[in-house]
Specification:
Oligomer: single chain
Largest sheet: 12 strands, mixed
Number of helices: 11
Structural class: alpha+beta
Number of strands: 12
Order of helices and strands: HHEEEEHEHEHHEHHEEEHEHEH
Radius of gyration: 21 Å
Length: 318
C-alpha cells in the first residue's frame, strides 16, 4: 500500500482533525495528486503523519497551506496514559524522522500551519525552520448553548435580543447562491472574492456527502439576505469557515445572531467552536466578545533555494 492508501485507511479508524482528513484534502486541493502524506511507523503501526499540499510555481517544488485548510502538518497518535517524558521523546523522534523524509523531497520552499494541539516543534527549529505565532479563537464547549450565551458580552447579547424579533435563520440557501452572495457583498466594497466557485462547490459537496457542513443565512421579514455562513465540523470541533455580510445591513445585528444560531445548531454535533482566528485586531476583539479563548498555533517556513527566494522578493516588489 502507498502512504496515501494507508493514510486514507487511518482516517477511517482515527479521529484526525477535519482539515487533515483525506477527503478534505481531496476537496480543497481538487487535484488528488497535489497532496500527499509522510508516515512515521513502528511495528507496523502508524504513530504520526505529516500531511502536505504540493504546488509547482516558477518551476519550483513548494509545500503550501491550501485555501480553506487552516492547518495541515503533523498529527500524532499518542498512546493512552503516556507520561510527559515519553510524550516529549516520541515527539522528538517522530518529528525528526518526518523532517528527514521531507527533506528528501528536494523542496524549494515549505510553509505550513500546525494545529494548536501541537505545542512542541523543537525538531523543526533545530533544522532551521522559521516559526511565527498565530492565533485562533475557540469556544471550548458548546454542548450547553445557554451557558455559552451567558459568557457573551452585554453588547453581543443586546445585538441578539434586538435582532431576534426582526431576523430569522434560514437553512435552505443553495451553495451557488451563497457563493454569489459572498462575491456580491465583497464587490460592494470593491473587493474581489479570493476563491473560485469551483473550489467552494468541491468543499461544499464533499462536506454535505458526509453530513458535516451547513449553510446558514439570516433574512428579514422581506426576505432580504443580511448575512450567511458556511460551517463545517468533525467530532471534536466546528469551524467558522466562510462568512459573508451584506454591507447594506452591517448594523442589523445579523452577524452576531448568525454566530448564536450556529452555536445552537452545532451544540449536539461537536464540542468546540473554532472561529478560525485572525491577526486583525477588530476581528479578534469581536471573537473574544463571544467569550472565546485565544489559542496559539505555529506557522513554520523554510526556504531551500536562494534563487526561489530571490524570485519571491522580485515578485513582491512589482
Amino acid at each position: 500500500m502507498s502512504n496515501k492508501e494507508k493514510y486514507i485507511q487511518l482516517c477511517e479508524e482515527k479521529e484526525i482533525p477535519l482539515f487533515m482528513q483525506a477527503w478534505w484534502m481531496d476537496a480543497v486541493c481538487q487535484d488528488v495528486d497535489s497532496w500527499d502524506v509522510l508516515l512515521f511507523e513502528k511495528e507496523s503501526q502508524i504513530q504520526g503523519v505529516l500531511v502536505y499540499h504540493w504546488v509547482k510555481k516558477f518551476g519550483a517544488q513548494l509545500i503550501l497551506q491550501p485555501v480553506y485548510a487552516q492547518f495541515n502538518g503533523v498529527w500524532i497518535d499518542y498512546p493512552k496514559r503516556i507520561s510527559l517524558a515519553k510524550k516529549c521523546k516520541l515527539e522528538e523522534e517522530l518529528m525528526s524522522d518526518l523532517i528527514t523524509q521531507l527533506e528528501q523531497k528536494r523542496l524549494h520552499y515549505f510553509n505550513q500551519n500546525f494545529h494548536y494541539s501541537i505545542t512542541n516543534w523543537t525538531p523543526f527549529k533545530k533544522n532551521q525552520f522559521s516559526s511565527s505565532v498565530r492565533y485562533t479563537y475557540v469556544l471550548e464547549d458548546i454542548s450547553k448553548p445557554e451557558k455559552v450565551y451567558k459568557a457573551f458580552t452585554y453588547a453581543k447579547q443586546k445585538h441578539i435580543k434586538k435582532s431576534e424579533g426582526k431576523l430569522v435563520v434560514d437553512l435552505d440557501l443553495s451553495a451557488a447562491d451563497f457563493y454569489d452572495f459572498h462575491a456580491n457583498s465583497l464587490a460592494q466594497n470593491r473587493i474581489k472574492i479570493a476563491y473560485s466557485k469551483e473550489l467552494f462547490m468541491s468543499i461544499y459537496n464533499a462536506s454535505m456527502k458526509r453530513n458535516v457542513g451547513q449553510i446558514m443565512s439570516i433574512r428579514d421579514s422581506k426576505e432580504n439576505l443580511h448575512a450567511a455562513l458556511f460551517v463545517v465540523w468533525d467530532k471534536q470541533s466546528a469551524y467558522y469557515l466562510i462568512s459573508a455580510i451584506n454591507p447594506t445591513y452591517k448594523s442589523s445585528g445579523a452577524s452576531t445572531l448568525m454566530v448564536w444560531e450556529a452555536i445552537k445548531f452545532l451544540s449536539d454535533k461537536t464540542k468546540i467552536f473554532d472561529f478560525e482566528g485572525s491577526m486583525i485586531e477588530n476581528v479578534a476583539k469581536s471573537f473574544k466578545a463571544f467569550g472565546a479563548t485565544k489559542k496559539l498555533y505555529v506557522n513554520l517556513t523554510k526556504n531551500y533555494s536562494f534563487i526561489f527566494k530571490l524570485l519571491m522578493l522580485l515578485k513582491r516588489k512589482k
